């Protein structure tokens, strides 16, 4: 009896649904699987981490007359310290120079500068991968910048984490600054993430605009200038800042000189008119001195002053605010959130999300009074959506280290006693009844010692119903 022959459409469906290990076995069964299997195996890309990986990769890719390179979409080079051995670099460069990679869209290189310093023959090879659109370089130095500059004019998303190295500091700024080395991709670039590059760019070197860039992330720079980025990315939509100040202090006296300099530069060289979204700590955004409206602010506040938060609102006039606060005095009527919401910069807020991480300095706070003050301030706004979360993990004391997540052994504090008995349903309805513009109120409680669960309740005005949920911890 003859074994029925499956048509190729069915066999293609079988191999597409199989595990990677099964595909490897199937490739030994017949010619069809031998040809189709690599398409699936290479679909999620290849990560090369060792000399052994290089040998296996090249041997696999050279099969079928080296035609498998057309299926490689993502390549990740994540070598350990020092990179591969010289003989293995020769094997890799020989193959990469030989094969055609017209569909290789993504390239990720870890410890790039160390690898290129030890193996400079990789530089022209990597430059030749001109089809790459998404590029990630960790430990970016002067040699890595050369690759970025010469790779071509098709880059769409780029992440450059710079090497903290004297070579980078000593190099001419035009050789290392991302806005200069990426000029070749000015027509295609859409997203850029830059870490550890804090060197200033003289206005004489400002590049022509990158019209397609809509997302920017700047991290771990001490007081970067904002004007070059505003000039280069006029159509930017969202920007993330991560520790772009001296994080040893958040006092305004130390941040104000940089804030004023950024404001002066934006006045002189131009800035954005509006931004869709800005994300960062209050200090990050405060020191930028933004001079444009921001639709959505995502903020984290720990050591900054509430006055700084009010100034950020004054700079940006947001309509949606998502704020996480871990600082004493959060519901203080004279200096806390209720006071900030009365400032002119808060007048456009329609969506307000506030996560209060209670600190031990506030453990005896009068929560009902604070909430009344918050309600009074919300009445002044055109607010429609309120999300308020109370996190009690750090009252009556902060529990970190070995105690993280464990209940305190101290007696209950005033804040805990309030949240032990409060009805989130009733509290949500109070917000809704007291603030006439509100349409949706969501309240949450986390980390309370005695309730021992996370709770969420949502009230909608038009439905006049309460939707609640709870998750046992």
Structure description:
The protein has 473 residues and is α/β, with parallel strands linked by helices. Helices cover 36% and strands 21% of the residues. The protein has helices spanning 8-17, 20-26, 31-41, 51-66, 86-98, 112-118, 122-127, 142-150, 166-170, 173-176, 178-181, 227-232, 252-269, 282-288, 306-316, 337-340, 367-378, 414-421, 424-434; strands spanning 46-48, 74-77, 106-109, 134-140, 157-162, 191-195, 215-219, 238-242, 274-281, 293-301, 320-325, 351-357, 385-391, 440-446, 453-460, 465-472. A 16-stranded mixed β-sheet has the order 1-2-3-4-5-6-7-8-9-10-11-12-13-14-15-16. Helix 2 (20-26) runs antiparallel to helix 3 (31-41) and helix 4 packs parallel to helix 5. The termini are far apart.
